[in-house]
Amino acid sequence: MTPQRVLAGVIFILGATLTLTTLTYAWRLPVDELRYSNIFLGLGLALFYLVEAQKHITDEGTDPTSVTETTDVTETTDSAATEQASTDEPPSLLDDRLTAVGGPYRRRIGTVYRRATPAICLLLAIIAIAATGYVEFHYDRLLHEARMVGWTQTDLYVGLVIIGLVTEATGRAYGKVVAGVVALSVLYASNFVGPHLPGLFRHTGMDWEQISREGAISLTGTYGFILTVGATWVAVFIMFAGMAKAFGLMEFIIRVSQEIRKVLKSGVVHIAIVSSMAMGSITGSAAANTATTGSFTIPMMQDQGIRGDFAAAIEGFASAGGQILPPVMGVAAFLMADILGVSYFVIIQAAVIPAVLFYFGAMLAAHMLVLKHGWTASETGSFDRSLLLEGIHFLVPITVLIYTLVVMRLTPLGAGFYTILTLVATMYVRNLFVDGITMNTLVATTKQTAIGLKQGAVEMAPLVGILGSLGVVINMLTQTGLTQKISAQMIALSGGVFVVLLLLAMVASILFGLGMPTPAAYILVVVLVAPAMIAFGVQEITAHMYVFYFAMLSAITPPVAISVAIGSKIAGVGFLVSCKQALRVGAPGFVIPFAFVANDSLIYWSFPETLVVSVLVFTGVGALVISMTGFDGRHVLGPPRRVGYFVLALAAMVGPFVVQVGSVVLIASLLASTYLRSAPQPQPSTD
Q: Which residues form the TRAP C4-dicarboxylate transport system permease DctM subunit domain (predicted)?
């Protein structure tokens, strides 16, 4: 047996073990949450590093057939997305560039490092197991006695190792920018830097022993609430998504999309938005979502005749927006519920109307663009309804998920546990019914289930490092007092003007979110920005939703705009022109947060206020789309009418109630006058 096959086998066993460990914890709660989180951290980091080792071995061309059963984890990580966005070029060109910059020595060092990467990853996996094993062995002492009698030198060294491991794993999974944030937070907290900084940023500093304690070994920092929520609520949903994909959900979605394009006038556009919306909600990564769903939706849109920059913009925007879609919200819903100390159901209820507004705007913008530019699909046949029967069994676990979350109001951990059990049971019943009650069917389904258990953990593994490293960042910033200082400074800069504070919070949320996966961006901005809004009188959930939305929108905001960067690579078009179209399509998304701050009933439901305000804001979103696309469904609009729709849209979304009503009446009058006229002949547009 080759080493590659041994590695694949270890990954299989470790992955299945991690998923089964999570399900066992959800079923029996055999240990306390903090202790379980340490076990999860060790298994998750080890699995991640082993998959990284396997990936590099495969990339080097060594026995690629040995890993055919292990789905490439880069389909669901931002590292893959970053590679597609920044290094998608032939190796020869990259080598030539390295030679030009640093000569043959730099190229040789790069080659040596790539060849050594599998061995480095294997070593890091062993260190991860050893470090978390040390914490498990000394758990009771670290939790209780050490706080009174102190930590040993070995404890402190292990703490530094754990901080280093989660930071390194974050860099491999999400790129150097995110890992750099973690490293800079530690450097900022240290007594080498903190005491020497000017003004707002100055603090007394922490020595390496304090950093080790606060960052990990006192069972805080890395072991904070972010990891505990991630190891329970987040993990069970990511694992469910991985298992569903192993059972063929992604293939089913692709086939349905291909069928629907035969009968819809808008073709595949709306299907691309819906698929990206659904996958983005589960993955928690706009970049990974664009890389996976975009790899087939963007070419399908281009085949329909949609221009490449628009295809990249639509996919990038829809993938980013998936993070705000209940019930998962890119795993941020679980973090938000834990931070605010409220029911998960309360968060989901608060997020529903803003998410519907967001995707209403996206759907309408895509529809208007298709009509404006004449990109409509020709009806080539009828929809094969029998295809829906092939995937109807997937509705069973989805129904259980919704019922357990919404009706029974179980915790996400409990709901995810029952949903996964239902998925597995449904697949056994479905396969036995379709393929026949035979031993071969049982064996094949059992093998499929085992692969699903492994794949669910593999999909989760890249998140483990960043969940731990975010805890380090939060503790470092909190211990130095920076979070409190920034909140006070924002209020001072606003000069007591509420609109200015909202604009400052918007800019800060976008800047802190650039290049980060949404859960990481949310954690950072909610600690740094949200307190200033709450101090100004904004209700807590509204403030959290506000900064969360803008952190999410950083994925389509230049200069990083990671989801648009990946989409433009797939489409083979320019990045900046794709960003321009993404901002146009996504314009409502930048106003919706202001709308729910101005209209609290969109977040905190009440009757009839929520119903009335929703109608007004929906109309405003429609008018804003018309302004941004320059098309009202019948005519290409000139600048005066576009400006008029824009002003009316803002008034309908964020104005006082009387102004909202008046604006909606004017918008309705304009649209009525347009649609009562006879339809004009189609006219080409180059906008």
A: 166-605
The contacts of residue 21 (CB under 8 Å, 6+ apart) are 39, 40, 43
Q: How far is CA 228 from CA 20, 221, 339, 467, in A?
A: 17, 11, 12, 9
From residue 203, give the alpha-carbon distance in Å to each of 36, 183, 190, 208, 356: 35, 17, 9, 15, 44
Per the domain annotation, does 268 fall within a domain? no
138 located within any domain:
yes
Structure tokens at 239: 């694992």
Residue 199 domain-assigned? yes
Both tokens of 57, joined, read 């071995």
* Nearest-angstrom CA–CA distance, 508 and 498: 15
3-class state of residue 515 by DSSP:
coil
Helices within 514-638 (DSSP H only): 518-528, 530-535, 540-553, 562-571, 575-585, 587-598, 609-629
How far apart are alpha carbons 376 and 361 in whole angstroms?
19
- CA-closest candidate to residue 582, choices 289, 320, 301: 320
Residue 486: inside a domain, yes or no? no
Q: Which domain holds residue 195?
A: 3-217
- What is the count of structural domains for the chain? 1
Residue type, 431: N
Per-residue pLDDT tens digits for 372-418:
888 877 656 677 777 778 888 889 998 998 888 778 878 888 888 99
Tens digits of residue pLDDT in 279-313: 666 666 677 778 777 877 888 888 888 888 888 88
Name 631's bridge partners.
Answer: 636
pTM above 0.85, yes or no: no
CA distance 188 to 195: 9
